[in-house]
Amino acid sequence: MDDLNLHLQILVMEACKYPKNTPQHRKAINHLLRSLLKSGRIWRPAAGNDNNKDIYEEALQKTLVDLSSKTLCEKYNPEQGLFLHWFNRCLINKYRDEIRNARKVKRYQKRIQSVLENDEMSIDLIDNLVSPIDATLLTQIWESFKQWIIEDPDNFLKDCHIRDNPKANCQLFAELNRIQGKKWQEIADEVGSPQGSLRSHWNRKCEPLLQKWLEENQKLLGE
Length: 223
Description:
Blueprint: H1 3-16, H2 23-38, H3 53-75, H4 83-117, H5 132-151, E1 161-162, E2 165-169, H6 170-179, H7 184-191, H8 195-216
Antiparallel strand pairs: 1-2
């Protein structure tokens, strides 16, 4: 065992001597974390994975938080290996979890984006999902999206209408087409404007407004 690992093992033993949440325990944990961060031997992804730098930093922070709050004395067994090796395994697992979560978020984004792009969108879109967890989250997103369209609290959608026809506005188009699933010709007949004008206005004016809402509400996607 080299000097670093010996030093870390001693700090672990020191921290676990004291009950959790005591000042002595917190002080020992902080000493351990500082030594760990200064060691230069924390695992990092191989070179070439710069695109995942933010994901790695998030995984590292979460691993450190877990270590300081619950996992060290409860889950680490010194008899089964060195603390540094155990910590790096925890970090690798957390990093892989974050990668999977990031991919899942992208899938959510694509599914929600289909709400904007698919003219024949089924109102039962959620039923096509495989994972119950995914379905629950996507349902929450979709319900928030619908609520914003229907209520249009700042009149962003309603105020964006075809010239000389206030009834033919983005709020109505989104509610009738995206939520109720009506065809564009039905909507055209209802508002008294040609279908071509509706589709053109939707593509140029309405879709960007809906896309902006989705972009500004990324937290609903789990970020």
